[in-house]
Amino acid sequence: MRFKILPLFIFLSLVTLFICTDSFSDQNGVVPSSDSSFSSPLLVKKDQRTPIVATEYGEISAVQIGDGYHLQFITLEPNALLLPLLLHSDMVFFVHTGSGILNWIDEESERTLELRRGDVYRLRSGTVFYVHSNEDSDKLRVYVIFDVGKCLNDPCLGAYSSVRDLLLGFDDRTLRSAFAVRSVSLRFIYVHDSISSCCFTDCIVCGLTIWKVPEDILRKIREATKPPLIVNALPRNRTQGSGEDKWQSQLVRLFVRAEDVTDHLAMKPIVDTNKKKSRTFNVFEEDPDFENINGRSIVVDEKDLDALKGSRFGVFMVNLTKGSMMGPHWNPSACEISIVLQGEGMIRVVNQQSLSSCKNNSKSESFMVEEGDVFVVPKFHPMAQMSFENSSFVFMGYSTSSKTNHPQFLVGQSSVLKVLDPEVLAVSFNLSNETIKELLKAQKESVIFECASCAEGEFAKRMREIAERKRREEEEIERKRE
User: Where would I find the Cupin type-1 domain in this sequence (predicted)?
Assistant: First the structure.
């Protein structure tokens, strides 16, 4: 991560508490989990995800984060196809495992991008895209976040629409005219890399090519069983034999260049000459922003990835070795939405006391997370992530800003407390100057620290709290019975 000590006035601004989502606890905090011992309004367990698609070729599940953010977990079996979708919002994604091909259409042409483990990229609102997983790779797992905003329609449009649904939303008369089943004129169309005049009567005539349009094609399209969003990909050696196959080929010609049709139908990548616009950032191939024997971290923002410019999201990944801790810190400019990739860990989030209230109503959240769980930390909330001594702990996530973030650490060589006058700090803690000085210089490391048995200690403390709460509840039940 990139670290910078902010000016004192920003540190003092912590009296105001901003939360990345006001309704997160209402959306996800009350959903029953297989292990309710560690329920929290900041935690969504893997089994609490909402299933969207489930076929033998892949699945999609989702987590809604308040009113504005929507996570989806897309899994494609080898040689599977996520059918074309129209994005209603920006989409930033991370490739967890596997490989494949992303195809999309922008204002210039159709583009393609090879996807590999560790890739980060963004597609803009209004983009039509589809994904094909490679036949000879592991399952393609892609974690996606959408900036859906508040719903302004009833029903809500969601993050995307199926291209098939968009087309069949029109009546037959409109479609017959649009696809030239009856007489309609089309002024220009791309053929063999040139613009040619076209005239449509009972058939489509372009240059020397004549395409006959079957009268019953719209009926076949409407009567066809709607496929799920994830299907088995077309075989690469497929031959265009039937009349319906030929018609599909003709439709493709309306959207891509003639010489690209064969590769398009066979799901082969089209050569992309615009490399800058189609460059991913791979978190495993780039140098980390911070690394020591206790772990490493990397942040991806708009300075690292051109595609993130104008986006509301950045991406980060943290890898803690056994018995380590990402030191107590807060993010002053973004909420963090994290997904556990490997191992287990304990999370501590501090909810500060409101200075406008005389009551001490602050309550810290402590919970255990494991692979597949989602946890959220609002900005300005101090947090610490800890790994157990028996395994490493890896998580990635999205920050709600593509600008460079500067997490503020409370301890270590990069501690924000070191910018304060030691005497003022001593008064704040009601300690002597000497005690404060010893406290600040004791830790020689920065950012990620050795923390033997810290996670185990948090776990034990949490279990005692749960046992005590259960005891009080049972006593209350007995009292009411009396």
Answer: 46-187, 281-437
127-139 residues labelled b (16+ CB within 10 A) or e (exposed): bbbbbbbbeebee
How far, in Å, CA of 211 to CA of 202, rounded?
Answer: 10
> What gap in Å lies between CA 424 and CA 205, rounded to an integer?
83
CA 247 to chain centre: 37
Amino acid at 116: R
DSSP 40: -
Name the strands in the sheet holding 194-200, side by side, starting at the edge strand that comes first in the sequence.
188-191, 194-200, 203-206, 209-212
Q: Domains, the chain, ranges and CATH?
A: 43-166 (2.60.120.10), 284-352+362-407+447-464 (2.60.120.10)
**182, pLDDT greater than 80:** no
The alpha-helical segments, DSSP class H, found in 211-260 are 217-223, 243-253
- Give the model's confidence band at 41: pLDDT under 50 very low, under 70 low, under 90 confident, else very high: confident
Residue 108 pLDDT class (50, 70, 90 cuts): low
